[in-house]
Design goal:
Elements (H helix, E strand, L loop, with lengths): L7 E3 L3 E3 L3 H6 L3 H11 L37 E5 L7 H14 L8 E5 L5 H12 L3 H22 L2 H23 L1 H4 L4 H8 L1 H16 L4 E4 L6 E4 L17 E3 L1 H19 L14 E5 L2 E4 L4 E3 L5 H12 L3 E6 L20 E2 L1 H9 L11 H4 L5 E5 L8 E3 L6 H4 L6 E2 L11 E14 L6 H14 L6 E5 L4 E7 L3 H11 L1 H5 L5 E4 L4 E7 L6 E2 L1 H11 L4 E6 L5 E7 L3 H11 L5 E8 L4 H21 L1 E9 L3 E4 L11 H4 L5 E2 L2 H10 L5 E5 L4 H4 L2 H6 L3 E3 L3 H5 L2 H13 L4 E2 L10 H10 L4 E7 L2 H9 L6 H10 L8 H4 L2 H13 L10 E2 L5 H5 L6 H12 L3 H13 L3 E9 L4 E9 L12 E8 L7 E6 L3 H19 L5
Parallel strand pairs: 3-4, 3-11, 4-8, 5-8, 6-9, 11-13, 12-14, 15-21, 24-25, 24-28, 28-29, 29-30, 32-34
Antiparallel strand pairs: 1-2, 6-7, 9-10, 13-14, 16-18, 16-19, 16-20, 17-18, 20-23, 22-23, 25-26, 26-27, 31-33, 31-35, 33-34, 35-36
Length: 957
Amino acid sequence: MRFLPATLLISSVCSFTPSPALLSRHGNVVGSFINAGINNNIRPHVKQNGLFSTLERPAAPMESSVTKPNGIEESWEVHKFGGASLADASLYKTVGDLLLSESTHRGPVPTMAIVSARGGMTDLLVKVVSSALSDMSQAESDLENALNGQLEILHELAPKEITESIELSMRKDAADILSVVQSLRMIRSIPPSVMEVVTGFGEIWSAQTLYAYLKAVGTKVAWLDARDVLIVKSEGNAGLGEKGSSSSTGGVTPVWDVTASKLEDWWGTIGKEEGVNWELKEGEKEAPIVIATGFVATSTEGVPTTLKRSGSDYSATIFAKLLKSSRVTMWKNTDGVYTADPRRVPEAFSIDSLKYDEAMELAYFGAQVLHPLAMVPCIDSNIPVYIRNIFNPAFAGTVIQGRCASLKDVNKDGKVVNWRSKKGVIPIKGITSVDKVSLLTLEGASVIGGAEVAERFMGSMADANIDVLMVTQASSESSITVVIPENQGKAALAALQSTFELELSRSNVNAISLSEETMSIVAIVGEGMAMNSGVSASFMSSLAKANVNIRVIAQGSSERQVAVVVEAKDASRALRSAHMAFTLSSTMVSVAVLGGTGKLGTALLRQLEAQKSNLEKKLGIGVCVNAIASSTKMRLGTNGQCLTTNDPDALLGDDADDLDMDALTLALQADVNPHRVIIDCTNCDRVADKYPFWMASGINVISPNRNAGSGPIDRYNAIRDAQRANSVEWQYESSVGSALPILTTLRDLMQTGDDVHLLRGCLSGTMAYIFSAMSEEVSFTDAVREAMEQDFTENDIREDLTGADAASKIVILARELGMDISVEDVEIESLVPEDVRNKEYTGTKDEINEAILKDLEVMNAPMLKRWKEAVEDGLLLRYKFVIDVEKSTCRCSLDAVTNTDTLYRLRNNENLVAFETTRYSTSPLIVKGAAAGPELAAAGMFADLLRLGRAFSTFET
């Protein structure tokens, strides 16, 4: 069993921190440790334990250090190139030219390059071996394809006088491979040693190919078959190991003294064989370059072997230690080690520097930029390891060097500081994940005894060779949960059921279960976590805001990492949320705008576009509009990409998709951004019906749509319940008073303990404008037309003039006050005759409104009469609302108000709300200001969005 990164905390005062070398070689280490406790009458007490620490692995001693050729005293540099950097002839040239540049730009620098097989070659050779079991002719064909691909590159890079001998060597290697695999059909199996021998030729051919190119350009170069010098002992499983596994090289250790001696002998012979003069003469600009094979080695028994999959990084650091190199550069296709996987967290960026310990933690938790054990040979000599981009060599990349302070040193003064108090300091270096894991749980074994349960549990995992990634135990009920690779789940379950077969039959163990869902581990890593409070809280809070459910929590005893297990479908959202929480990137808010081509939607999109850069700079908030819909069409950003919103009408043209609310919802659910917002500008009941479902998916809603807040009370309650149950926000400030803080003021009064008795004022900017504009010269319908021309009215002007618009706002306020009320309960005075109110009109919006105005001309005379009577008495007409909380009544009507009324000075398109409360009993609190028109309504929605953004963000100005 190979216990990967975990730290088992035994009680509150003692911690066991096995080294990764120990873990990879001795799978039953935890069982043995627990057994030792039992023998000494110690009962394991494991509560929310963490991960086995990977950071205390001691560097293996090197007894001999005579590893440089005579005549070279300068410090060597080691470069490592992976298969992706060697996929074709042009890339081999790129690598060769880069080596020449690196070996000369700081003066002549003796250089060793460790190379992997060309891209895809190892898989091709694996296929050769696999094919030989059933079809020898297919194996021969696969081998020929592999060889010819390498030879084509070789011939393109160098002339015949250089390639001829190399080609003969490669063809001899191919013949040897064929003779080896021909025997497989007889034994009907593939010995691990055969797979290792065959696949190792990919590196040998690759090194020879790069050597040929450098020799062709006249470089002082030699190539080294690592099998001739690198001697290793393997205590783990034979074979290549699993591709991409962080445990692949576990148990493979160089025999340092023998390797150093063999390398010294190689220096003495290679000069004669290659005709290379290693001595650097004064003033000489060219330094020697050695091309060495990665991945391959020789066992202590003299058998060709490998450092397992992804082991070329390890080869590079082994040779760096042997050479006492001044640096090691791992050339990748990324700009160093990233704060997170940029494929899953687009905002991730390259880290300038890491400590060895931090890099190892990140590597063990799935960061694929470097191999977990590649750091080990460099630690003792403190050799810096650079991660750089072969396609962007000018970029400095990431440097890995130095050790993290020990917990003893960190804890010396005992002072704990909240990480947010350290301005500009981020406690973590990166966030990473391990995908495709499962939870294996044993429940209710209290009658057996916790220590015995733990020993037998871990022993069964060891016997079945299961990788245990995390462990948690509940002492109160003797329950244990381990996190294991998903592909080992069934084997682990069977092993545990067999171990506790008798207890299960007697019901001494309640249940043994394997999670059905695919899980992922998400971990934050960084030296700054130790003795800094609030780090775990920030991590957990970010996941809660992203609606990510945590199944298992663990913290390592090193205090340099915290890990959680979440459902795989939530992993990317968890990564992005955590990344934002520690201000590693701006808080990005994904926005879908419904009704995007209407007056409100267009005004909002215009404002968002204009303020985009300002938001990021001042507030650390990025807004990504990745969905826009009209009443008939929709446009979704490809793979969640942001849409350019300058012209919504063009986006929703004929080539846009037909509106499909289900498809739109699925796209919003699939968005991995933890901060998702729908802005509903439609005032449509069908859209409001979707709110509870969206909220249940963790999506926040901003709603100028008054139908949501004033519609059927059952739907209103369902929205409220969904909001509370899923910790999401429903912002609808803009549904009442546009950008005026009416609802905010009301909530503040109530939440601070004030009792609201009466609300009164005017909630219709249209009505305010009409009765400010009316005169003997301006008729009622002329004033309505002016309001229409200034975009103050609803699409159907009857909504304003019947009082329906004002009534819906009254209901929203009343429900905020706790009143169980609907629009039907509001006493409304309509200014539209019943026949006009119920009449069906056809045509465009403008044509319909003109027809309505024509029919309303019958109201000009009576409205002028009311206006004159009011003016003659020193009064003014205002469309007034009153909410009497104590009487539980609501009304809106056209009233004549005196000059002592707050509405007397209402102007143009203003709204006004007067709050009469216990505190404000002698004089009401008044909120007053312009509130009609799409720009003001859009500003209100924008403010709602900013409130959400600030709640998501940890940005400090």
